[in-house]
């Protein structure tokens, strides 16, 4: 495991790199709004990816690196994420397909930046389809805007809603709520199985 700092337009971000034996692609994972990169579902997906020969970068947004808990505005999150993706793509993951991903807020960032960052696929953990109890404030457009293959791993009791599958989007429901802590083995299996198929498409 290696930690690197990356300059972004909104301050330094940090990436924790977990390298696979044979890197066939690289997966960049972002954290939730108030959480960090040690969230159980992010740890499970990191294990699944490295087992599938995919390098992983767990990305800490500049506001977290600076010690703040309140997230930055969406445009700042997206700009910082793209700066990290560009830097890591050149310095560490040259010539490898990049897969964007993250949990909750990080999943939204991955979706919004997938096209600009030329992501080959997107992996969403606990995508917050709408604020709890407010289905009218849907964020489905962020998911629908991704043209590359998408996996959404969602808790069966997630109060932030349940996205529906579509032509390029798979949705896997696992036991638990928005935290995805209840059954990390199911999260691991869903990510590993999907990554195995995605690698055959993007290589």
TrEMBL record:
The keyword Hydrolase applies. The keyword Mitochondrion does not apply. It comes from the Bacteria. One of its GO terms (molecular function) is hydrolase activity. Residues 24-191 form the KANL3/Tex30 alpha/beta hydrolase-like domain. InterPro entries: AB_hydrolase_fold, KANL3/Tex30_Abhydrolase, NSL3/Tex30. Gene3D superfamilies: alpha/beta hydrolase. Keywords: Hydrolase. It holds the Pfam family Abhydrolase_11. This is Alpha/beta hydrolase.
